[in-house]
Specification:
This protein is 29% helix and 22% strand. It has 17 helices and 23 strands.
């Protein structure tokens, strides 16, 4: 493929086949087209060679042109830092995981940090004695795959000034450890984020919703000032920062930094109302099998949730409400109804049958992570075996008219929309049969859900649309499972400017 380099603008994409929404308006979906760009938008589409190319030409060589992809739920710095940390996914026991951390490198700050362990189905439980015996006096931190618990040795607990009889901190205490682990020199943090953003662009990503647990307005203003221009970003605001956001006049959709760039915009108030499946703290209507009186945790009571959402809505902020268990989801939907707030429920992993139609009726988006369904299939079948609500109900939500917005929750899963789409369409990523195949969705819905507007309002390729585009190797609407999951992307454009070229 010839033509402009990364950072340069494209005026004509020559010889591309059109994929995704917009192709149905073309007289022949299978032939190649030339796509003309102007002012960061699609200006025209014509059969290849019918109109002379103009300006800088990017030869697509028959690749499939799709709307640029979005990840609607990312913890960007935490994801970027996983490259430096020891990966613990797949280890079968607490003892094996502790041994792995004994071999982990010591980082520049004197810590060992591991990520991605999953203890819910271990025969042995995490303990201080097991971790201390393996890791000694070097402060050692293990972050659960779901981010809702961390396992520390005694040296790490002393360093942080905390205590836990088994070494495990959960929910708010775990989030605080995450903030401390991510508290880097700004230049170092921004460098790893820049690398992660470039990797995302190489997968066809043009935008993310960043839900790092910090004052993101300052963070992203700084990155823009330093030249960040790889992705569009919408950032979350947490309750501890809501008063500041209102005082500064931040409203959802407002640009941050130089308005001319408009790459970074204010997102939603993010409220975490329950725990997680992996930590067994998701708030559910039925008890957990090993403790039938344990229904998980509502970490924000309904009255406080409504108060927060009322304040946010009055100030012009949308709401992104973390709710995983069916009890938490019901409370969140009740709060949307009571406050007239708009926005999303994040995760929606276990949904009561009666709540399925309420998403569309209330105009609340379902911001979901299909890869979690595949990673958690064994856990769901065990820990949620007694629940009567639906686990990971993608097809049911789509059929009810809900707007699906796909994401990864990186670092919980990789920031890779192709893996996300493959999980949603095929409900498996190994040689096992699809998990709950009745919840598989069509590739067209998955592709739209991975674009800016979601499954009901997805981005389109048509004159006037933003020139946020990606060229991929095969038709994503017809790709077999492995080709979809490992899709090769040859170019990504953001407002007509190249952010990736193979």
């Amino acid at each position: 493929m010839s033509g402009p380099a990364i950072g340069e603008s494209v005026d004509t994409i020559r010889g591309a086949r059109i994929g995704g929404a917009g192709r149905e308006l073309l007289p022949d979906e299978g032939i190649a087209y030339d796509v003309f760009l102007r002012g960061g938008r699609v200006a025209d589409i014509a059969p290849a060679g019918a109109v002379p190319p103009r300006g800088a030409v990017l030869d697509a060589d028959g690749a499939w042109l799709i709307p640029g992809l979005w990840d609607h739920h990312v913890h960007m710095l935490a994801w970027a830092l996983t490259a430096q940390r020891t990966h613990l996914d797949g280890l079968p026991s607490a003892a094996a995981t502790a041994r792995a951390m004994a071999e982990a490198p010591v980082l520049a700050d004197g810590r060992r940090v591991g990520v991605g362990y999953r203890d819910a189905l271990w025969a042995d439980a995490p303990s201080l004695d097991v971790l201390d015996a393996a890791t000694g006096g070097i402060p050692t931190y293990l972050v659960n795959a779901d981010l809702h618990s961390v396992w520390l040795n005694s040296a790490a607990l002393r360093r942080e000034g905390l205590g836990a009889s088994d070494g495990v901190l959960r929910e708010q205490a775990a989030f605080e450890i995450g903030r401390r682990l991510n508290d880097l020199d700004p230049a170092a943090a921004d460098a790893v984020v820049a690398r992660a953003a470039a990797d995302a662009a190489a997968r066809g990503v043009v935008g993310i919703v960043d839900l790092d647990m910090t004052w993101n307005a300052a963070t992203w203003t700084r990155r823009l000032a330093a030249g960040f221009d790889t992705l569009r970003v919408e950032f979350g605001i947490y309750p501890e920062h809501l008063e500041r956001a209102i005082a500064e006049g931040l409203r959802t959709g407002d640009p941050v930094g130089e308005e001319a760039s408009a790459l970074v915009r204010v997102g939603s108030l993010k409220v975490i109302t329950d725990g997680s499946l992996g930590t067994r703290t998701a708030a559910c209507s039925h008890g957990y099998p090993d403790a039938p009186h344990d229904h998980g945790l509502l970490t924000v009571d309904p009255a406080m949730l409504q108060a927060l959402m009322t304040d946010a809505t009055a100030a012009g902020l949308s709401c992104a409400i973390h709710a995983i268990g069916d009890a938490a989801i019901s409370h969140a939907l009740d709060a949307f109804a009571a406050t007239s707030a708009w926005g999303t429920i994040e995760h929606a992993q276990l949904v009561a049958h009666a709540d399925l139609p309420r998403f569309a009726r209330l105009g609340v988006g379902a911001s979901v992570q299909p890869e979690h369904a595949i990673d958690d299939r064994d856990l769901s079948d065990t820990v949620w075996a007694g629940q009567t609500a639906l686990p990971y109900p993608l097809r049911a939500l789509a059929d009810s008219g809900a707007n699906l917005l796909f994401g990864s929750d990186a670092p919980v899963a990789a920031l890779d929309p192709w893996a996300t789409m493959a999980a949603a369409v095929h409900r498996s990523k190994d040689d096992r049969a699809p998990w709950h195949p009745e919840q598989q969705i069509d590739p067209a819905i998955a592709l739209a859900a991975s674009s800016r507007g979601g499954s009901t309002e997805g981005a389109r390729i048509e004159p006037g649309a933003p020139a946020d585009l990606a060229l991929c190797a095969v038709d994503p609407l017809a790709a077999p499972p492995e080709r979809l999951r490992t899709m090769a992307v040859s170019a990504t454009l953001l407002g007509g400017r190249l952010t990736h070229r193979a």
